């Protein structure tokens, strides 16, 4: 635009300078061709006027173009800001949509419970106990004496009978097995509530584990989730068992690793003492085409062996023996001619290295573990150490300590509540784990018999806290405070804690049912205890013991 103005000014100055009237001739006379000159000046003026109009038009066009560019830039900037605002609203809408979808999933199928109300309801036994009067010491003592204490003698007599019969059955099993080809069965051991003296539910069932080992020259090589290799979360608590030769990955005889020559003979092994080819691993109860011990194969072998053993000694007894559960290898039931029956579990296990930790093939019905990931995964049981720990701690507690009484009362209340409202995700093993944690956490004098009420409340508070957090750690795994007297394997002490409540994180419906059952048990606690003390005659107490909880 400045260039155009300059050009206009230059034209105007030139016209003024060249005007004939501005610089007249010296003689002062008007020339003869004045009209012609005037005509030319008019033409020149017209030309300059047109040039000025053209320049003004160009300047106007340039200004219009500049304004158009500025307007276009403003439009682009506004569009960018609008896009940013739109993206923000889009993201916010997506977040709101996801929140609504999560809310719908949480409260579908009629579960219209407010999250805040659920948190308040789970607030450390606050409202739950305010609405229900907790039984006092006298009521608890009377209930324990009438309802629970009388079962101790029954458990002792049943343990003695079952152990004697199990020893005879296993001895017959060894006699029917081929020592050179079949698994070697060791003596059985009693574990669980019957041998820790806190079982209250009828019918009483003894749990016996039977360690077994492969025939020579084979051995078991175990591998657990905490042995260094990575295991997925659903396989924590499990391990695998590999069947290999005794000299494999070890210090076996060198005759299998070195060619001795035709004229040399190993003094330890002869040609008759040869091992089986690896293609026959199924004879060693392994999974097909692998060297890993198969729990299903073990189940079939054990059931067949027990059946053969019973056929050999059945003539000595005046009762019948049968398998009570088809999906459990050693769930046996003794049926007397009078109609009475006695149930017990005889479960095959594999020892973990040189410890009292065992790989268990199958858990009894309604027990802790769910179905394993595969038949080559074995769950680890620490039942022997649990029994040993309770026995060790009991020596340091006051006489007639209330730890077992608390566990029995809690087990009774939970079992009775489940019989009324249906099963929940809690098991007796969870309740025992709570007791083990409190036994380690509280001083020994806190377990005096007169403190039964306080310790029972402690167990309920601890259990509700664990339910609220959906976290109950296994007592031994990851516990660095296990007494050294137990000889517990250090590898499990250094492992990451194992959460027994992990299924509650994965299954919300089971969790809600468990929490509802627990709160209902708290509300019904006084009524249940009074029902089995005040309203039941003492003469009928023994009859109550026969109820199935």
UniProtKB/TrEMBL annotation:
<keyword id="KW-0175">Coiled coil</keyword>
<protein>
    <recommendedName>
        <fullName>Inositol 1,4,5-trisphosphate receptor-interacting protein</fullName>
    </recommendedName>
</protein>
<dbReference type="InterPro" id="IPR026250">
    <property type="entry name" value="ITPRIP-like"/>
</dbReference>
<dbReference type="GO" id="GO:0004860">
    <property type="term" value="F:protein kinase inhibitor activity"/>
</dbReference>
<keyword id="KW-0472">Membrane</keyword>
<comment type="similarity">
    <text>Belongs to the ITPRIP family.</text>
</comment>
<keyword id="KW-0325">Glycoprotein</keyword>
<keyword id="KW-0812">Transmembrane</keyword>
<keyword id="KW-0732">Signal</keyword>
<keyword id="KW-1003">Cell membrane</keyword>
<keyword id="KW-1133">Transmembrane helix</keyword>
<dbReference type="GO" id="GO:0005886">
    <property type="term" value="C:plasma membrane"/>
</dbReference>
<feature type="domain" description="Mab-21-like HhH/H2TH-like">
    <location>
        <begin position="404"/>
        <end position="477"/>
    </location>
</feature>
<comment type="function">
    <text>Enhances Ca(2+)-mediated inhibition of inositol 1,4,5-triphosphate receptor (ITPR) Ca(2+) release.</text>
</comment>
<feature type="coiled-coil region">
    <location>
        <begin position="38"/>
        <end position="82"/>
    </location>
</feature>
<dbReference type="GO" id="GO:0005640">
    <property type="term" value="C:nuclear outer membrane"/>
</dbReference>
<dbReference type="InterPro" id="IPR024810">
    <property type="entry name" value="MAB21L/cGLR"/>
</dbReference>
<dbReference type="InterPro" id="IPR046906">
    <property type="entry name" value="Mab-21_HhH/H2TH-like"/>
</dbReference>
<dbReference type="Pfam" id="PF20266">
    <property type="entry name" value="Mab-21_C"/>
</dbReference>
<feature type="signal peptide">
    <location>
        <begin position="1"/>
        <end position="15"/>
    </location>
</feature>
<keyword id="KW-0539">Nucleus</keyword>
């Amino acid at each position: 635009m400045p260039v155009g103005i300059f050009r206009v000014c230059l034209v105007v100055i030139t016209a003024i300078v060249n005007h004939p009237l501005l610089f007249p001739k010296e003689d002062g006379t008007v020339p003869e061709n004045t009209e012609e000159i005037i005509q030319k000046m008019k033409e020149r003026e017209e030309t300059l006027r047109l040039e000025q109009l053209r320049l003004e038009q160009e300047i106007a066009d340039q200004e219009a173009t500049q304004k158009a560019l500025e307007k276009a830039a403003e439009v682009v900037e506004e569009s960018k800001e609008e896009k940013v605002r739109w993206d923000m609203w889009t993201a916010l809408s997506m977040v709101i949509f996801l929140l609504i979808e999560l809310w719908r999933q949480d409260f579908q199928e009629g579960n219209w419970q407010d999250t805040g109300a659920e948190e308040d309801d789970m607030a450390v036994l606050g409202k739950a106990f305010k609405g229900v009067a907790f039984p006092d010491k006298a009521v608890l003592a009377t209930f324990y004496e009438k309802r629970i204490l009388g079962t101790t003698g029954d458990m002792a007599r049943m343990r003695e009978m079952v152990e004697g019969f199990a020893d005879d059955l296993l001895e017959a099993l060894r006699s029917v097995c081929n020592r050179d080809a079949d698994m070697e069965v060791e003596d059985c051991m009693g574990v669980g509530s019957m041998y820790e003296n806190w079982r209250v539910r009828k019918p009483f069932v003894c749990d016996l584990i039977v360690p077994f080992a492969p025939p020579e020259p084979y051995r078991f090589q175990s591998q657990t989730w905490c042995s260094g290799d990575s295991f997925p979360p659903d396989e924590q608590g499990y391990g695998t068992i590999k069947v290999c030769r005794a000299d494999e990955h070890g210090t076996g005889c060198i005759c299998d690793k070195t060619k001795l020559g035709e004229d040399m003979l190993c003094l330890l092994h002869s040609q008759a003492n040869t091992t089986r080819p690896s293609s026959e691993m199924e004879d060693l109860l392994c999974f097909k085409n692998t060297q890993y011990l198969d729990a299903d194969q073990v189940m079939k072998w054990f059931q067949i062996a027990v059946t053969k053993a019973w056929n050999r000694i059945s003539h000595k007894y005046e009762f019948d023996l049968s398998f009570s559960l088809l999906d459990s290898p050693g769930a046996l039931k003794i049926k007397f001619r009078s109609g009475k029956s006695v149930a017990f579990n005889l479960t095959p296990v594999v020892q973990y290295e040189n410890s009292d930790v065992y790989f268990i093939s199958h858990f009894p019905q309604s027990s802790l573990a769910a179905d394993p990931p595969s038949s080559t995964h074995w769950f680890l049981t620490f039942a022997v150490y649990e029994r040993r720990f309770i026995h060790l701690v009991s020596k340091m507690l006051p006489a007639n300590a209330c730890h077992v009484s608390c566990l029995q009362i809690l087990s009774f209340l939970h079992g009775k509540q489940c019989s009324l409202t249906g099963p929940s995700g809690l098991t007796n093993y969870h309740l025992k784990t709570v007791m083990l944690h409190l036994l380690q956490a509280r001083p020994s004098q806190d377990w005096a018999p007169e403190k039964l009420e306080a310790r029972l409340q402690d167990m309920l508070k601890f259990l509700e806290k664990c339910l609220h957090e959906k976290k109950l750690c296994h007592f031994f795994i990851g516990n660095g405070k296990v007494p050294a007297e137990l000889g517990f394997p250090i590898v499990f002490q250094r492992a990451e804690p194992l959460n027994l409540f992990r299924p509650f994180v994965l299954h919300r419906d089971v969790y809600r049912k468990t929490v509802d059952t627990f709160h209902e048990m708290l509300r019904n606690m006084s009524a249940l205890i009074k029902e089995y003390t005040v309203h039941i005659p003492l003469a009928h107490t023994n009859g109550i013991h026969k109820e199935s909880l």
